[in-house]
Specification:
By secondary structure, the protein is mainly α. It is 86% helix and 0% strand. The chain starts with a helix and ends with a helix. It holds the Pfam family Med11.
Length: 117
């Protein structure tokens, strides 16, 4: 259960990063809109530029942390909460079960055909 909560936490962190990127784009749009005016509001530009810079730095730090985690997972280094191996084993087991069902269904069909003849 802890593995799922860790995975959900990682997904939530990525969603937060995505929202922050949206805010970055909105700040950039506001700055561009303000710059397109004949008379610009310097205070607004300064605030938006500062918010833009802070958000970009935060997103960069968060993405770096995510990349470091994924690098650990991909290289097999020890890390907390990795469930890749277990999930892969489970997926392979489910594929084997599906294959066995398919083969049993074929055998059942063959038996039915033989009984009908």
């Amino acid at each position: 259960m802890a593995t799922y909560s860790l995975a959900n936490e990682r997904l939530r962190a990525l969603e937060d990063i995505e929202r922050e990127i949206g805010a970055i784009l909105q700040n950039a749009g506001t700055v561009i809109l303000e710059l397109s005016k004949e008379k610009t509001n310097e205070r607004l530009l300064d605030r938006q530029a500062a918010a833009f810079t802070a958000s970009v730095q935060h997103v960069e730090a968060e993405l770096s942390a995510q990349i470091r985690y994924l690098t650990q997972v991909a290289t097999g280094q020890p890390h907390e909460g990795s469930s890749y191996s277990s999930r892969k084993d489970c997926q392979m087991a489910l594929k084997r079960v599906d294959y066995a069902r398919l083969k049993l269904s074929d055998v059942a069909r063959t038996c039915e055909q033989m009984l009908e003849s």
